[in-house]
Amino acid sequence: MSSLADYFDLRKSFPFYGSYHNDKRNQLVHIAFVPVIFTTALTFGSFAKVPSIGSFSDAAALFYAVSFIKMEPTAGLLYAPVIAMMHYLGTQVLTQHMGLAVGLHAVGWLSQFYAHAVFEGRKPALVDNLFQSIHAAVFFVWLELLFALGYKPELHRELQALVKERMKGFAKKQ
Fold first, then answer.
1. Does residue 15 contact residue 163 with C-beta atoms inside 8 Å?
2. C-alpha distances out from residue 20 to 10, 17, 70, 172, Å
3. What range does the domain containing 37 cover?
4. Total structural domains in the chain?
5. pLDDT digits (tens, 9 = 90+) for 62-90
6. Which residues on neighbouring strands pair with residue 50, listed in sequence order?
7. Are 17 and 133 in contact (CB under 8 A)?
8. Are 87 and 42 in contact (CB under 8 A)?
9. Phi/psi at 24 (nearest 5 deg)?
10. Are residues 19 and 163 in contact, defined by beta-carbon separation less than 8 angstroms?
């Protein structure tokens, strides 16, 4: 990623993240656990108060929803209520069950690292760009679900071609 603006450009962000998540088994692990990690992170962030906003989690959920709407309006609008639900679950429910939140968070991360090592045979995207990975992961899994359901096949083909182009520079999996 060459600039901050690239983080919010779907045609740059998706290929970056997608190039680290090409194996379908790894994608399934991420589809299952990225929402868990996001929700539990909102749990932890709910204790950090931000003046005039509420909590860090309130600001983060709003930021994610708005940025995803900017990146791909229809998919972002469809995802906004899901983000609101994850926000509610994280800030209102899991805050009453911190042991569960910590356990789910740990299992989510461990599952992803395992999937990268075993299925992709390479390091996760966050090693190369932490901020981009944390932002892109949440939308990537949503888009993968939508694409699997037939959402915007032209866009899916375009993004997959960009992923394949980006992957040409990577060493072959051993």
1. yes
2. 16, 6, 23, 12
3. 24-165
4. 1
5. 999 999 999 999 999 999 999 999 999 99
6. 54
7. yes
8. yes
9. -60, -35
10. yes
